[in-house]
Amino acid sequence: QVQVVESGGGLVQAGGSLRLSCLFSGSTDSINIIGWYRQAPGKQRELVADIGSGDSRKYGDSVKERFTISRDYTKNMVHLQMDRLKPEDTAVYYCNIPYWHNGYYFDAWGQGTQVTVSS
Prior knowledge:
four-stranded antiparallel β-sheet, globular, 11 strands, mainly beta
C-alpha cells in the first residue's frame, strides 16, 4: 500500500508563491508517476502537473510557465512550486499516486491542502 500526505497550502496574495509538498510511503518501488490535481468549488478535479519515470513532466495548460513539479528521491517527496499565483488557482490541491500491488491497481490520494489566492 501507498500512503500520501500533502502539506504547504495557505493564503497568499495574487502574484505570490507557495510550495506544496507530497510525502509518500509504503510500497514505493511500484510507483511510476506522481501527480498533483486540484479541485475548485463547483468544478471538476483537474490535473495540475505530474512527474514520471526519467523525471518526465506534464503540466496543465493554465499553469505552464508558472508551476514546477519536482521529485526528491531520497526523501520520497514530490514538490509543486507555484509562482505568479492567480485567484483562479484557488482550490484544494491533491497528490495522487497510482500503483500496482499484488496484481491489483490502486489509486492513492492524500487528504488535500487548501490554496487560497486573494486578489
